[in-house]
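Reminder to self: tokens first, then the designed residues, so the page reads top to bottom the way the pipeline ran.
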């Protein structure tokens, strides 16, 4: 009995669908592996320079690092808030850095963790840790981050322990499954995907702290501009007042007391002219009588 055209079409469609699903899964796998490596590199580079600068400053001059983040008595509320946000950002970046370095399975892990913890301890000396817990939380989190190892083989060994011992080719099948599931991957990527969600949350926190710091800086800049404008206006008023109160240059040069009087108004000029005319008439009358 021959298959109908509809049956043949359905079979071909099913085979093509299965092939497309396999190709799509391979494509997704390749993209996820590529994006995983790229995410790890970008995240590490975004915090690496700042963390290295902090560790270098802490080695060379810890008192200067402590002083730059200490709260001063004359600090205004915006300055204090800006320093708190800066400490939040530093603490978050240090945690992100340790997570990324653990994913890369870095050498001398204990020494690097000690350096980061030393930076946190220096900064903790500059603030009141009883009221400000971000540095304490970061220090506790870094101390609790385990050095991760690729445990895919351990998982399959655990599965093998619960399987019946009389099954044939059990180890071969599990080994083949492990190679298929980890195809194209690496221990670094496996470690990265374990902490990727946590690091993403930390990156969001760091971005939030950076945005808040930018807003505070804008407020401080606006306040400085307002103070600058007021000082310029006050300077202009003082300059105008000093110019109005100063005598003319001709008066300063002549030195004659008679010339220092103010200019007469039009009404005063008319009175002076009448007075002069009256004196002139009296003089003429006197001359005539004589």
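Designed residues (290 positions):
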């Amino acid at each position: 009995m021959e298959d109908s055209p509809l049956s043949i079409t359905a079979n071909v469609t099913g085979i093509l669908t299965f092939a497309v699903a396999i190709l799509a899964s391979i494509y997704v796998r390749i993209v996820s592996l590529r994006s995983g490596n790229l995410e790890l590199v970008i995240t590490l580079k975004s915090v690496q320079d700042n963390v290295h600068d902090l560790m270098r400053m802490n080695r060379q001059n810890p008192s200067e690092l402590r002083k730059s983040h200490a709260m001063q008595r004359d600090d205004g509320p915006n300055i204090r808030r800006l320093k708190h946000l800066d400490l939040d950002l530093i603490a978050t970046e240090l945690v992100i850095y340790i997570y990324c370095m653990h994913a890369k399975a870095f050498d001398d892990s204990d020494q690097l963790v000690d350096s980061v913890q030393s930076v946190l301890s220096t900064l903790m000396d500059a603030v009141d840790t009883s009221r400000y817990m971000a540095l304490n939380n970061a220090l506790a989190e870094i101390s609790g981050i385990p050095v991760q190892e690729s445990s895919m083989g351990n998982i399959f060994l655990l599965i093998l322990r619960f399987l019946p011992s009389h099954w044939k080719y059990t180890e071969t099948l599990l080994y083949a499954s492990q190679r298929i599931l980890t195809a194209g991957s690496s221990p670094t990527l496996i470690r990265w995907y374990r902490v990727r969600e946590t690091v993403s949350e930390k990156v969001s926190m760091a971005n939030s702290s950076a945005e808040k710091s930018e807003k505070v800086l804008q407020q401080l800049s606006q306040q400085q501009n307002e103070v600058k404008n007021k000082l310029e206006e006050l300077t202009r008023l003082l300059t105008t007042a000093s110019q109005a109160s100063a005598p003319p240059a001709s008066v300063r040069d002549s030195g004659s007391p008679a010339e220092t009087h103010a200019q007469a108004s039009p009404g005063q000029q008319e009175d002076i002219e009448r007075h002069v005319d009256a004196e002139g008439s009296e003089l003429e009358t006197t001359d005539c009588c004589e």
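Residues 151-185 form one domain.
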